[in-house]
Hints:
Layout: H1 3-13, E1 20-23, H2 27-32, H3 34-46, E2 50-52, H4 61-65, H5 69-82, E3 88-91, H6 94-103, H7 112-123, E4 125-127, H8 128-135, E5 147-151, H9 155-161, H10 165-173, E6 176-178, H11 194-197, H12 199-215, E7 220-223, H13 226-239, E8 244-247, H14 248-252
Parallel strand pairs: 1-2, 1-3, 3-4, 5-6, 5-7, 7-8
Helix pairs in contact: 6-9, 8-10, 12-13
Amino acid sequence: MDTKAAASRVAQTQPGKHKRVALFVTCLVDMFRPSVGFATAKLLEEAGCTVEVPSQSCCGQPAYNAGDRADARAIALQVIEAFTGYDYVVAPSGSCAGMISHHYPALFDDEPDLRAKAFALAEKTFELTAFLHDVLGIRDLGRSMPGDVTYHDSCSGLRELGVKAQPRALLQSIGAKIHEMPNAETCCGFGGTFCVKYPDISNAMVSDKSKEVAASGAGVLLAGDLGCLLNMAGKISRDGYNVKVRHVAEVLAGMTDRPAIGEAEEG
């Protein structure tokens, strides 16, 4: 397949043409895997979107999950201010997108004006694969990257945003063969602060997940949330399984030339 010609066809259709998209990078991507952010930007730009990266930090989810609504609210105000004025907000993370789109409005129940702004931001915030597939209607990414993969459904993306079919459809469009795990929808045990508060339970959960990943027969494990991927990559490595772990954005964007998550950089 002529991948350059195919990419050109995608660019010509430009389903995202004239769309001004703000990229919510996420803390984990910024600190541990910047290539996921670059892959996200590449996919959006190939679709014709104008991508911008506003000044940003955390989405506030750790504070929110810990019951610290005051700090969660303060962080949400910063995000609302920074991301106002864009057509869409896209994050390579179901948990961050879920926080903004599902939980921000409730932080301002007693403040109608701010609640309205939070709702406006919530309505235009999407997880990456859902945005590409559902909003832009992309069915062909213009490249071929065949391979055997298995996919973990991260909790927030699946249960808050309904992200399940979208990444699989996009992966199949580039020729990937998906080997489904029997419990792909079961939590990996990360859960943000959950893994810190309940390490024994978390380890038991990721142990089960690691075994199921290996039993799938796929050489690559993919997911849409870096927290889950870091957790699973660590366990898979400790268990000695020969499975590479990557964010789905890297594979969809054709950016798999760097070491997988948990592998040492060369040189």
